[in-house]
Description:
Elements: E1 26-30, H1 56-67, E2 73-77, H2 87-95, E3 106-111, H3 116-126, E4 130-134, H4 140-147, H5 152-166, E5 172-177, H6 186-196, E6 199-204, H7 222-230, E7 236-238, E8 247-251, E9 258-262, E10 275-278, E11 283-285, E12 294-295, H8 296-301, H9 306-317, H10 338-341
Parallel strand pairs: 1-2, 1-10, 2-3, 3-4, 4-5, 5-6, 6-9
Antiparallel strand pairs: 7-8, 8-9, 10-11, 11-12
Helix pairs in contact: 1-2, 2-3, 3-5
Amino acid sequence: MEMAPSTAPVAGSSLLVDSYGRTIRDLRVSVTDRCNYKCVYCRTGNAGALYPELSNSEYLRLIGVFVSLGINKVRLTGGEPLLRKGLVELVRELAALRTLDGQPLDLALTTNGHLLAELAVPLRQAGLNRVTVSMDAVSPEIFERITRVPGSFSAVLSGIRAALAAGLAPLKINCVLMRGFNDSQIEPFVHFGSREGVVVRFIEFMPLDEGRLWTPEMVVPLNEVVERIRRTLPLVELAAREPGETARRYGLPDERGEIGIVAPVTQAFCGACSRIRLTSDGKIRTCLFSHIEHDLYGRLRAGATDDELRSYIHGTASKKEARHRIGEPDFLSPSRSMVHIGG
């Protein structure tokens, strides 16, 4: 019979530290690679999943082993995680886990928001702390041209407001900027964030799309975003909350909200990276751009003990890449696109 992980910390567990001295505290877990959107910068539009999903008990056991190694932040991703049956119950069980210092996990979720209006309250009651919504325009026409799903804008807006009302705050909006697609939305998004009371984060477009659409010319760099916003509103750069934070943070004087800019292409933050990923089929990826996957689930299915799983995770973490190499002559896109890796 498969045993669920203990909610108590494991005595003597050692932290995950890679060969570059970076302590890994943040686990991103994809619970499905299915998605109900067909965003032009992500998917080709083909339906269905490419990879299987684990059971809730299997995710729970593997995540519990990671937590016993010092992970204190878990983010559930997809695909679109709200499509997964049993998600609320998985969140409830994860919320019962405790970190090595006895504290609850920082438990978050990234979603496209389409189903969030119905699930915001159940997820909050189950123990979810925060939610990030992927939303790439505040113009309904531009938004639905990107998602290729009619009616998607109104559904996402309802989901955002429901999440705020449920107490899933601070709520972050992730906007992937693509020149020629939605770069006209920068200034409107700033006002949207202020009006709705959410944190808006602009993300540089990375070469992780299924259709290999990406080119360097499509990237809207951090400096350009800052310059454009400062033409109309003063920005005050804010200190990072922690060394591994991905976003450069900016405050808006006399207005609600905060702006973040995630610049993995032009101002990479690899040197402070504290993240590791688990795909929907149980493979460890030490970087979004890894070319090697490490089959943790295969070891679980073969009967590995938790100590053996811990040893394998330690060995895998030590192989974490120094950097992603975007823009370097030897850069190669990973075999999986973002929807099949998990953000």
